[in-house]
Amino acid sequence: MKRLAVFLLTLLAACQTPAGNTDDGGADGTIDTNTHEQPQIVLERDEVMRFRGTEMPELLERMDSDDPDEWLYVRRHVHPQPLPPLEFKDGNVAKVNYDWPPADWTKLNARQKAWRSYVLWPEHVRGLLQQERLVDTKGQEFQKAWDSAEVRTRLARYGRMYRIVYKFQSAPQYANDQRESEHWRQFAESLLAYGDDGRDLLVSNMILALTSPNESVIYKAQGVLIQVGQPAIESLCTALWTGHNQLVEAQDAKGETIYVVQTNANFPKYVIETLYQIGPRSVPQAIYELENTLDPDGEAKGTAWRFRKSFIELLGRFTDKRAIRALDAEITRVKIFELDRVELAKGKRVVDKEATDHATYVFREYLLQAIGNIGAVEGLRPILRIWKLDDFHEVSAVDAILKITNRRVRTLSEARELAKQLKVDLQGE
Fold first, then answer.
1. Is the Cβ–Cβ distance between 294 and 300 less than 8 Å?
2. CB 136 within 8 A of CB 44
3. Taking the model in full, what pTM does it have?
4. Residue pLDDT, tens place only, 258-314
5. Domain spans in the chain, listed from the N-terminal domain onward
6. DSSP code string of 175-189
7. Whether the bond into 101 is cis, omega within 30 of 0
8. Above 50 in pLDDT, residue 95?
């Protein structure tokens, strides 16, 4: 089994089309090439890791050439961008062009093949190859074009970095743990030598490793991320909004290479533990995530609580009272509802009241636990708010108050009196 997850799952499952849609984007599935530019080069590939570790580096090396035709050849793999599966307007799906992922990977129409070829390339590499020169109102350049010497050099460097990643990922695991640890250290140092781009690529690979079912892999990845420190925080927080499935290479009974989806339900726990070990510098980013991942109306609806509770748990591990305000706001801005799974399978969105009530209870318990762990007297206000909303939180609320004040109350009225004695502002509670 490989050290790290293969990229195929998250990349080729992107832009999913609603079930049941069979529009292939045209009677014959052809691509609209009504453009003055040369058409995109479409590759017939499905092994993402191998492409990125072998063929892509060779292509990107052409960006170091003095021949512009070489650069154009590389760019044509991602430009012009093919028609995406979904088109969005104002954050909502405006049009479905074709099924993605396809029902049968062996029977792709032309548009699906073009999109698969396009997403073979990492998003940041695609972005650089599509980048145009931009100037401000005073004519000052603030973005280099894709064919500038600076961007071409950066692309060539990415090719070399991805070759390092592939060599690391495809190497057999050492039986000797000390040699294996040395191998990880050398890998990390090799990427860090490439500056910020290398560091970011290292961080993304180490976060991917946290999905592994192998605890040895997880501990080594955590060690690297902790050493990277502050620059890894934002990416780690972003990972808490994602799932924890991975596609790994395995061998079937005949020794053939197959791809198997594996799940590590402990992924959020590993991310939280890593952020905690990086230290209190994680607090501002966790607060930022809660305050800036809301709907346009300033709320978080539906099942978003499942992800938000990870940030709440993380904040509860630090004794930083700056988090109290954000946790207090979570009480009312998170509007939880769970849908009936049976009805959802039929295409109907029906709220499951029992599941919603349970989810709401669990979410508020996370809040009480976190606020009590922080231990700041300001936390009494949100504790009282939650207790007032539902008496079922009484035990947890009493425990949280005890942690903060070292005093045990028996009723909500006693808790209010205690808060007043400690000069806690209960206005609006």
1. yes
2. no
3. 0.82
4. 556 666 788 999 999 999 999 999 999 999 999 999 998 899 999 999 999 999 999
5. 1-171, 282-429
6. SSHHHHHHHHHHHHH
7. yes
8. yes
The two structure tokens encoding residue 81: 């961008």
Residue 129 to residue 78: CA distance in whole angstroms: 7
Structure-token pair, residue 189: 């140092």
Q: Mean pLDDT throughout 86-115? A: 88
Number of other residues whose CB lies within 10 A of the CB of residue 336: 22
Tokens of 100: 């993605």
CA distance 282 to 374: 15
Is-contact 407 421, C-beta < 8 A?
no
DSSP 54: I
Nearest to 356, CA basis, from 368, 340, 345: 340
User: What was the pLDDT predicted at 248?
Assistant: 58
Tokens 């946790």 belong to: 327
Please, is 146 exposed, middle or buried when counting C-beta atoms within 10 Å of its C-beta (0-12, 13-18, 19+)? Answer: buried
Tokens 């293969």 identify what position? 6
